[in-house]
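Here is an idea for our session: we take a single protein and study its fold together. Which protein we use is up to you, so please pick one and set it down. Once you have written the record down, we can walk along the chain together:
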Amino acid sequence: MKNLMLLPLLFFANIIYGQSFHYPVVQQQGKTMKDFAPPGWTVLASATGDLNKDNIPDAAVILQHKDSVNFVEQLDSGHTFTVVTQPRILIILFKSKADNQFHLAEQNNDFVMLHDSPTREEPFQEMAIDKGILKFDYQIFCNAGCWEITNLTYKFRYQANEFTLIGADYYSMHRATHASQNYSFNFLTKRRTKNISANDDDKGYGDTKAIHIAALKTLKTLKSVFSWEVEKDFYL
Protein backbone atom coordinates (compact mmCIF):
# COMPACT_ATOMS: atom_id res chain seq x y z
CA MET A 1 0.00 0.00 0.00
CA LYS A 2 1.28 3.45 -0.84
CA ASN A 3 1.02 6.72 0.99
CA LEU A 4 0.18 8.58 -2.21
CA MET A 5 -3.23 9.62 -0.87
CA LEU A 6 -1.42 12.36 1.04
CA LEU A 7 0.37 13.79 -1.96
CA PRO A 8 -2.21 16.32 -3.15
CA LEU A 9 -2.60 17.82 0.32
CA LEU A 10 0.89 17.73 1.67
CA PHE A 11 3.84 17.57 -0.64
CA PHE A 12 2.97 18.45 -4.19
CA ALA A 13 2.62 22.07 -3.10
CA ASN A 14 5.42 24.57 -3.50
CA ILE A 15 4.79 27.48 -1.17
CA ILE A 16 5.17 30.99 -2.53
CA TYR A 17 5.11 33.40 0.38
CA GLY A 18 3.34 36.70 0.17
CA GLN A 19 5.64 39.51 -0.83
CA SER A 20 5.11 41.28 2.49
CA PHE A 21 6.28 38.35 4.61
CA HIS A 22 9.87 37.29 5.17
CA TYR A 23 11.25 34.87 7.72
CA PRO A 24 13.47 36.72 10.20
CA VAL A 25 17.02 35.69 11.02
CA VAL A 26 17.01 34.69 14.67
CA GLN A 27 19.60 36.24 16.97
CA GLN A 28 22.71 34.25 17.74
CA GLN A 29 22.62 34.10 21.54
CA GLY A 30 20.41 34.76 24.54
CA LYS A 31 19.86 33.85 28.17
CA THR A 32 16.39 32.38 27.73
CA MET A 33 14.43 30.71 24.93
CA LYS A 34 12.12 33.71 24.73
CA ASP A 35 15.09 35.92 23.92
CA PHE A 36 15.22 34.25 20.48
CA ALA A 37 11.65 35.14 19.55
CA PRO A 38 11.77 38.12 17.14
CA PRO A 39 9.14 40.85 17.50
CA GLY A 40 5.78 39.47 16.45
CA TRP A 41 6.73 35.88 17.28
CA THR A 42 6.06 33.67 20.30
CA VAL A 43 7.25 30.30 21.64
CA LEU A 44 4.84 27.56 20.52
CA ALA A 45 6.71 24.58 21.99
CA SER A 46 10.08 23.73 23.50
CA ALA A 47 12.11 20.79 24.73
CA THR A 48 15.31 20.57 26.74
CA GLY A 49 18.05 17.97 26.98
CA ASP A 50 21.71 17.41 26.15
CA LEU A 51 22.11 17.28 22.36
CA ASN A 52 25.85 17.78 21.84
CA LYS A 53 27.10 15.44 24.61
CA ASP A 54 28.66 18.08 26.86
CA ASN A 55 26.38 17.24 29.82
CA ILE A 56 24.69 20.66 29.61
CA PRO A 57 20.96 20.86 28.80
CA ASP A 58 20.36 22.32 25.35
CA ALA A 59 17.02 23.35 23.86
CA ALA A 60 14.87 22.98 20.78
CA VAL A 61 12.24 25.68 20.28
CA ILE A 62 9.39 26.15 17.83
CA LEU A 63 8.52 29.79 17.25
CA GLN A 64 5.19 30.82 15.77
CA HIS A 65 4.20 34.09 14.15
CA LYS A 66 1.53 35.82 16.24
CA ASP A 67 -0.48 36.92 13.22
CA SER A 68 -1.83 34.90 10.32
CA VAL A 69 -0.24 35.34 6.91
CA ASN A 70 -1.63 34.66 3.44
CA PHE A 71 0.42 32.05 1.60
CA VAL A 72 -0.09 31.24 -2.05
CA GLU A 73 0.61 27.54 -2.68
CA GLN A 74 1.32 26.26 -6.15
CA LEU A 75 0.63 22.64 -7.08
CA ASP A 76 2.75 20.72 -9.55
CA SER A 77 -0.21 21.00 -11.92
CA GLY A 78 0.31 24.77 -11.98
CA HIS A 79 -2.88 25.58 -10.07
CA THR A 80 -2.57 27.89 -7.09
CA PHE A 81 -4.62 28.40 -3.95
CA THR A 82 -4.30 30.65 -0.93
CA VAL A 83 -4.08 29.48 2.68
CA VAL A 84 -4.09 31.55 5.84
CA THR A 85 -1.72 30.29 8.50
CA GLN A 86 0.84 31.29 11.12
CA PRO A 87 4.44 30.65 10.01
CA ARG A 88 6.71 28.59 12.25
CA ILE A 89 10.45 28.42 12.83
CA LEU A 90 12.46 25.64 14.45
CA ILE A 91 15.56 26.75 16.31
CA ILE A 92 18.07 24.55 18.14
CA LEU A 93 20.12 26.10 20.90
CA PHE A 94 23.31 24.88 22.57
CA LYS A 95 23.86 26.02 26.14
CA SER A 96 27.38 27.21 26.96
CA LYS A 97 28.82 26.74 30.43
CA ALA A 98 31.33 29.52 29.80
CA ASP A 99 28.78 32.34 29.60
CA ASN A 100 25.63 30.49 30.77
CA GLN A 101 23.83 31.48 27.57
CA PHE A 102 22.11 29.70 24.72
CA HIS A 103 23.79 29.91 21.31
CA LEU A 104 21.95 29.33 18.03
CA ALA A 105 23.04 26.03 16.48
CA GLU A 106 20.45 25.78 13.71
CA GLN A 107 17.44 27.59 12.28
CA ASN A 108 14.97 25.77 10.04
CA ASN A 109 11.95 27.48 8.48
CA ASP A 110 10.48 24.45 6.70
CA PHE A 111 10.42 21.28 8.83
CA VAL A 112 7.71 22.12 11.38
CA MET A 113 4.34 21.47 9.77
CA LEU A 114 1.86 24.34 9.68
CA HIS A 115 -1.79 24.28 10.65
CA ASP A 116 -2.70 25.55 7.20
CA SER A 117 -5.97 23.83 6.33
CA PRO A 118 -9.46 24.35 7.78
CA THR A 119 -10.26 20.68 7.09
CA ARG A 120 -7.14 19.30 8.79
CA GLU A 121 -6.50 19.25 12.51
CA GLU A 122 -3.29 20.64 13.99
CA PRO A 123 -0.54 18.33 12.62
CA PHE A 124 2.18 19.12 15.16
CA GLN A 125 1.83 16.92 18.25
CA GLU A 126 5.04 16.92 20.26
CA MET A 127 8.75 17.66 20.27
CA ALA A 128 11.04 15.99 22.80
CA ILE A 129 14.71 15.38 23.58
CA ASP A 130 15.45 11.95 25.02
CA LYS A 131 18.95 10.53 25.50
CA GLY A 132 20.37 12.97 22.98
CA ILE A 133 17.72 12.24 20.34
CA LEU A 134 15.54 15.10 19.08
CA LYS A 135 12.11 13.69 18.23
CA PHE A 136 9.13 15.19 16.38
CA ASP A 137 5.64 13.69 16.35
CA TYR A 138 3.03 14.66 13.74
CA GLN A 139 -0.51 13.49 13.10
CA ILE A 140 -2.44 13.98 9.88
CA PHE A 141 -6.17 13.92 10.58
CA CYS A 142 -8.63 15.48 8.15
CA ASN A 143 -12.28 16.03 9.02
CA ALA A 144 -13.15 16.23 5.32
CA GLY A 145 -11.69 14.86 2.12
CA CYS A 146 -9.61 12.04 3.57
CA TRP A 147 -10.36 8.82 5.47
CA GLU A 148 -6.83 8.11 6.68
CA ILE A 149 -5.27 9.10 9.97
CA THR A 150 -1.48 9.12 9.86
CA ASN A 151 1.10 9.34 12.64
CA LEU A 152 4.71 10.24 11.89
CA THR A 153 7.79 10.32 14.09
CA TYR A 154 11.18 11.71 13.05
CA LYS A 155 14.34 11.14 15.11
CA PHE A 156 17.45 13.30 14.77
CA ARG A 157 20.85 13.00 16.43
CA TYR A 158 23.62 15.58 16.42
CA GLN A 159 26.68 14.06 14.76
CA ALA A 160 29.41 15.38 12.48
CA ASN A 161 28.15 18.91 13.23
CA GLU A 162 24.74 18.16 11.71
CA PHE A 163 21.32 17.14 13.01
CA THR A 164 21.10 13.80 11.23
CA LEU A 165 17.89 11.86 10.64
CA ILE A 166 18.62 8.45 12.17
CA GLY A 167 15.11 6.98 12.25
CA ALA A 168 11.47 7.47 11.34
CA ASP A 169 8.15 5.73 12.02
CA TYR A 170 5.03 5.91 9.86
CA TYR A 171 1.61 4.55 10.78
CA SER A 172 -1.55 5.06 8.73
CA MET A 173 -5.05 3.67 9.32
CA HIS A 174 -8.27 3.92 7.33
CA ARG A 175 -10.93 5.08 9.78
CA ALA A 176 -13.74 3.08 8.18
CA THR A 177 -12.07 -0.26 7.41
CA HIS A 178 -9.19 -0.05 9.94
CA ALA A 179 -6.82 -1.22 7.24
CA SER A 180 -3.36 -0.09 8.32
CA GLN A 181 0.24 0.21 7.25
CA ASN A 182 3.08 0.47 9.72
CA TYR A 183 6.66 1.31 8.69
CA SER A 184 9.76 1.74 10.85
CA PHE A 185 13.04 3.02 9.38
CA ASN A 186 16.53 2.77 10.86
CA PHE A 187 18.75 4.92 8.68
CA LEU A 188 21.93 4.00 10.55
CA THR A 189 21.54 0.30 9.73
CA LYS A 190 19.77 1.18 6.45
CA ARG A 191 16.91 -1.19 7.11
CA ARG A 192 13.17 -0.86 7.40
CA THR A 193 10.35 -3.07 8.63
CA LYS A 194 6.72 -2.91 7.61
CA ASN A 195 3.42 -4.55 8.44
CA ILE A 196 0.25 -4.25 6.36
CA SER A 197 -3.16 -5.39 7.65
CA ALA A 198 -6.66 -5.33 6.17
CA ASN A 199 -8.58 -4.77 9.44
CA ASP A 200 -8.37 -5.17 13.22
CA ASP A 201 -8.71 -8.97 13.02
CA ASP A 202 -6.07 -9.37 10.35
CA LYS A 203 -2.59 -10.15 11.67
CA GLY A 204 -1.27 -8.75 8.45
CA TYR A 205 1.88 -9.40 6.54
CA GLY A 206 5.20 -7.63 6.41
CA ASP A 207 8.87 -7.80 5.79
CA THR A 208 12.24 -6.40 6.72
CA LYS A 209 14.50 -5.17 3.96
CA ALA A 210 17.54 -3.07 3.27
CA ILE A 211 16.98 0.45 2.02
CA HIS A 212 19.34 2.10 -0.41
CA ILE A 213 20.15 5.69 0.47
CA ALA A 214 23.09 7.62 -0.90
CA ALA A 215 23.60 9.68 2.26
CA LEU A 216 21.92 10.27 5.58
CA LYS A 217 19.44 13.11 5.57
CA THR A 218 19.85 16.08 7.91
CA LEU A 219 17.58 18.93 8.94
CA LYS A 220 19.26 20.96 6.20
CA THR A 221 18.80 18.40 3.42
CA LEU A 222 15.45 16.86 4.43
CA LYS A 223 13.78 20.26 4.17
CA SER A 224 10.12 19.47 4.89
CA VAL A 225 7.88 16.61 5.95
CA PHE A 226 6.89 14.26 3.10
CA SER A 227 9.59 15.65 0.81
CA TRP A 228 11.83 12.55 0.66
CA GLU A 229 10.95 9.56 -1.51
CA VAL A 230 12.75 7.04 0.67
CA GLU A 231 11.32 4.13 -1.32
CA LYS A 232 9.48 4.09 -4.64
CA ASP A 233 6.18 5.91 -4.12
CA PHE A 234 6.74 6.16 -0.37
CA TYR A 235 7.53 9.56 1.14
CA LEU A 236 8.76 10.72 4.52
